Amino acid sequence: MEQVLVGNEAAIEHLTIALLTRGHLLIEGVPGVAKTTLANLFARTTSLEYRRIQMTPDILPADITGTHVYSEETGAFSIQRGPIFANLVVADEINRATPKTQSALLEAMQERRVTIEGETLALPRPFMVVATQNPIEMEGVFALPEAQRDRFQFKLTIDVPSRDHERELIDRFDDDPELGPDDVSQVVDIGDILTSRETVSMVHVAPAVKAYIVDIVDATRSHPDVAYGASPRATLAFLDGAKARAAIRGREYVIPDDVKALAEPVLVHRLVRSTDAELGDVAPVEVVDDVVDRIDPPGAADVSTEPVESGADDDSIPDPSQS
């Protein structure tokens, strides 16, 4: 993917974690920062069938899920499947669609199935939604309902690239103006993905780390700047995401750093701020940082299932005395 992308390593990792844990991703950013290209590249490298839905105010739920179509030749109705029937579905600029249309994704994202006029159909396996949205301050957008936001495992914010990255970008496209998703190669197939999912599910999570996850989520519900905290779905997002992050780094067990690294993408879109916090312009990310700072992580002896080797990398378990 980095043959085309510049400076989006974190987004690539979160896409991978979501794919390995049956999650969905919400990506926010101003136009032109490669949000849709990111998803297209990811689909091509992972052999996933890719469909893109351009969300607009006039699009209807049936334009996403499908409908029954009458055939004059047979005199009967048949199902016309919508673009939701793919492995990786991009809902581009999701917050430009009305809440009614946004809700067409709810059943698909939670239950991996779609009901079309009373008939329920299973979606392909694997199935993943990547939704992009413009910042809510822009004109012509509808904020996603809480139930919709809660179904996204992660929310990422793609910023404008740094000066160095932008210079590398123009050099790269100056050399090859036609550079795009067609230039990347498939590196895994669906069988590899399903096998990797099984590997991730076997990663060990110690009771102390599970308690740490629950403490963080519970702290969002009593924070003074939060009217409604994170749901149990956030707790499971932490658990699954931390397992995948550990496996990607070659570990068979989760450490507190895996949980802390996922706190912002897991929680930032799920918190409903109090009126005072909104008036005081307290950002959700500030609340998340405060929650994580308040909760003490477990020590090394409580989380590891095997000895910690000396000279470990940055993901090694921290000294409890310095927590």
Concise description?
By secondary structure, the protein is α/β, with parallel strands linked by helices.
Describe the model.
This is MoxR family ATPase. InterPro entries: AAA+_ATPase, ATPase_AAA-3, CbbQ/NirQ/NorQ/GpvN, ChlI/MoxR_AAA_lid, P-loop_NTPase. It comes from Natronoglomus mannanivorans. This protein has 323 residues and is an alpha/beta fold. It folds into two domains: 171 residues, 3-Layer(aba) Sandwich (Rossmann fold), CATH 3.40.50.300; 104 residues, Magnesium chelatase subunit I, C-Terminal domain (Helicase, Ruva Protein, domain 3). It has a five-stranded parallel beta sheet with strand order 2-5-8-1-9. Strand 6 and strand 7 form a beta hairpin. Helix 1 crosses helix 10, helix 9 packs parallel to helix 11 and helix 11 packs antiparallel against helix 13. The longest helix is centred in the last third of the chain and has 17 residues. The C terminus is likely disordered.
